[in-house]
Design a protein that fits this description.
With 388 residues, the protein is α+β, with helices and mostly antiparallel strands. It contains 9 helices and 17 strands. A hairpin with a 2-residue loop joins strand 6 and strand 7.
């Protein structure tokens, strides 16, 4: 970054204001294609709070897939129609999903929507299927230091977020599995109050000149984000206790939709929606650009953006040149330190940062010597639609 001041001088000189954290992991393979990992950190602090935004959706997908497997109920799988009921304040019922091929909601369709375009409602439905307490407890047991406290895009109280909708799985008119409302009776208490910025807008028009309170918002450190990514992509390289209980089919499903582009997706009909493009939710190397991503490059990732924070947690593969690496980063482009004013420098600072950093590492990886060319066939996926 120091060698390219035209791209990174502001990032380097303002790293604390911009809350920049970067983890770059090199992957080297031996003659048996077994990978080893070497990680490099810039300004990383696992205790420093940043709002993780949509990055929390990735582990929630994994938890939901794991839960289906652990239930071990005949006739219940990720494609079984799943319905939500409303019996408590703030809850929303779901009886159909017009974006799916059969018009019905399911764990599989919610995961698909999350991994391709980061759908908020889909995350909420999986959060409700898991329940707040189980989602946190299971991730803690696996060694991930997280706090998942709330749904997204729904202004609910802590009490409402502790109560999650009853869920029913029904197939062919038969009740396969029924889950009552889950309640987290043990309030999750953050270690300290988290106040950020100089002020915030309330109800869009009223400026409150006090720091914005993030205390009861989600927390997911960058280190844990990359650890979860590695656990899913390279499960054999980590301790069994940190893995998710996924089938081979689950892994293939996750790999496909993590890397599938909206322009390759039929259900939902993202390919027919001009607002979606190749680089939608692919910050590294491409930002918010609308150019075509080369066919030989695939990015397996999960992004987040909210309150001025941009995050991307990615595994980048170049099949043509035999390149692979992991890169995770966060930046806060709320430079006026006023939250909810809509004045975040995504276009001028945020996206260029991810484009430049991704390209910087990619160009370095193209030239970096390797003892063995990696066999990356594991990550060659068949997608819903072949791009023209």
């Amino acid at each position: 970054m120091k060698r390219e001041p035209q791209n990174f001088e502001r990032i380097l000189t303002s790293k604390e204001l911009l809350e920049v954290q970067i983890i770059y992991t090199q992957i080297d393979r031996d003659e048996n294609n077994i990978p080893t990992f070497s990680s490099f950190h810039y300004n990383v602090d696992t205790t420093r709070y940043f709002y993780p935004a949509s990055t929390v959706k990735f582990p929630m997908c994994l938890l939901a897939l794991e839960k289906i497997n652990k239930l071990r109920i005949e006739g219940l799988n990720i494609y079984t129609p799943m319905f939500h009921d409303s019996i408590y304040s703030g809850q929303l019922a779901v009886m159909r999903d017009t974006t799916s091929e059969n018009g019905l909601p399911s764990v599989a369709h919610y995961v698909k929507k999350i991994l391709t375009v980061s759908d908020n409602d889909a995350y909420n439905r999986l959060y409700e299927f898991m329940g707040q307490q189980a989602a946190n407890d299971i991730l803690h047991e696996k060694g991930y230091h997280v706090r998942f406290l709330h749904r997204l895009e729904r202004a609910l109280s802590p009490d409402q977020n502790r109560h999650t909708e009853p869920v029913r799985f029904i197939n062919g008119g038969k009740n396969i599995y029924e889950q009552s409302m889950l309640v987290n009776k043990d309030s999750i208490v953050p270690p300290a109050r988290i106040l950020k910025g100089k002020g915030y807008y309330k109800s869009d028009t009223l400026l409150i000149q006090k720091p914005f309170d993030f205390t009861y918002k989600n927390f997911f450190s960058l280190r844990d984000q990359q650890d979860v990514l590695r656990t899913v992509l390279f499960p054999e390289s980590v301790n069994a206790s940190t893995r998710f209980d996924l089938t081979d089919e689950d892994y293939q499903f996750v790999y496909q939709y993590m890397s599938q582009l909206p322009t390759e997706t039929i259900y939902p009909a993202y390919t027919k929606d001009s607002s979606y493009h190749d680089a939608y939710c692919k910050f590294f190397m491409y930002g918010a650009g609308k150019e075509r991503i080369p066919d030989h490059i695939r990015i397996f990732n999960k992004v987040g953006d909210a309150y001025g924070y941009l995050i991307d947690n990615a595994y980048v593969v170049d099949f043509k040149n035999g390149v692979e690496f992991m890169i995770s980063a966060v930046i806060n482009v709320n430079t006026d330190e006023i939250y909810n004013d809509g004045k975040y420098e995504y276009e001028t600072i945020g996206y260029p940062f991810f484009i430049n950093l991704g390209q910087l590492i990619y160009q370095y990886e193209l030239k970096r010597p390797r003892k063995s060319r990696p066999d990356l066939s594991k990550f060659i996926m068949k997608y819903d639609l072949v791009r023209p």
